[in-house]
Amino acid sequence: MDDLIEHAAPGTPTEAAVAPAPLSLSFSGSGAEYFRIWIVNLLLSVATLGIYSAWAKTRRLQYFYRNTHLAGASFDFRGDPKAILRGRLLAVAVLGAYHYAFGLSRTTGLVIVAVLLLGLPFMMRSALRFRLSNTWYRGLPFGFSGSVKHAYLVYLLPIALVVVPSALAALTLAPGLLGAFFLLYLLWPLMHGAMRRYQHRHLVYGDQQASFPLSIFRLALPYLQGFLVSLAIMLILGIVLIILGAIVGVTSAGAGGKKGVDMGMAVVIIIGIVLFYLSLLMIGPFVAVRLNNRAWSATAFPGVRIDCHMAFWSYFRLQLVNVLLTLLTLGLFRPFAAVRTWRYRIEHLRIDAPEGFEQATHAARRRPAAAAGDGVADFIGVDLSW
After folding, report:
1. Pair 200, 142: CB distance under 8 Å
2. Can you tell me whether residue 214 is helix, strand or coil?
3. What is the count of structural domains for the chain?
4. In terms of residue numbers, what domain contains 287?
5. Using an 8 Å Cβ cutoff, are 301 and 143 in contact?
6. Which of 70, 93, 208, 241 has the fewest CB atoms below 10 angstroms from its CB?
7. What are 24's strand-pairing partners?
């Protein structure tokens, strides 16, 4: 055997030199299984006026995580529903106060706006810490190491874009000021890129910190690509409709005179409206696919690299079918749509560990308690997604 290895041709890989194949994630759940969980969660949440929604959230995450497998092990969610409930009650109280604040007085409204601006960035960070610290894989929790200061730098402006406009309108200030404030929405691609960078750059598994080299501008690039693609679609659509209108006008004029022309043009207009809205529906999935591929493929842990390769057309067809079937079934297809989307996303992830996945995961250790989280964030347990 030693002679064979010693006299192997240059460039011929030996068994030890062959890099391990990338690992794939799989999902063992089904829409029918999740439907039973979903319908019970829905009925109990309605019966308890939303109180059970925190337990419903926990059951949902546990179902999806425990049926997601990687390298022979599954993920798990161990969040305390009571902590989620405390966070939701706090969030509902603050948002309810914001809704009615300006009806009481300007001073009350301004105080509530200030509370939202000062509190929501911390709550967003707390939500990330709570979700990740309660997500486990192979006996180790994930985590989030982003600082409070960075959270305010990332989330304060997006939150202001939601909170401040209604406050300006309630204060009946100059319309020009409100219009100028809305111009900040043009910066949304950069703001979204900053949020994704903050989330991915501070991911932790055990004591292993993730690396994320992408800049905010590179993360915002899919928005520019989506804008250019939408312009191209609109241009092509306009040319096709003009040609189609001319053809319909000529053929209809010979067949039915003015009435035929009007009917033909009405059909063209209806087709144009449908295609226009369909093209608008394509922009969201296009940006989502490009941004997810870019962000996850740039995320790596020591010895482990993630590759995301979602395809736009297959993802768009999936979402289009999900929306149509959910509408046709009056919402009953929603759990099936959630399973289909989850399965699609995780099955388009690959985990590449050149030195071996087992070796990389065994290198991770439990973080010290002092580094795992602060008491206030863990107590609040805010989870802003429903």
Report:
1. no
2. coil
3. 1
4. 220-297
5. no
6. 93
7. 350
